[in-house]
Design a protein that fits this description.
two-stranded antiparallel sheet
Length: 82
């Protein structure tokens, strides 16, 4: 009897989308995750050095920003993408 194995993205579980397996080791623990191109964008950005290693704020207070800070971030992003 023949068997076929289908690997799907661990996030969206879409059948037919190509996936890549990522192996992550943290403090001796090993994790494996299969991700499609869409869901692998953040990890690929981290691996290529194009994103900050800290994806989420470390403290609740870091989630707040003034309008001036928001506008400054927008200007910085625009200048970086130009």
């Amino acid at each position: 009897m023949a068997r076929k194995q289908v690997v799907v993205c661990d996030v969206c579980e879409a059948v037919g989308k190509p996936t890549t397996r990522y192996r992550i080791t943290r403090e001796g623990q090993r994790f494996e995750v299969d991700l499609c191109v869409d869901h692998a964008k953040r990890i690929e950005a981290l691996l290529s050095g194009k994103a900050s290693a800290r994806a989420t704020p470390a403290r609740f207070e870091d989630t707040f920003a003034t309008f001036e800070e928001i506008e400054a971030r927008k200007r910085q992003r625009q200048s970086e993408s130009a």
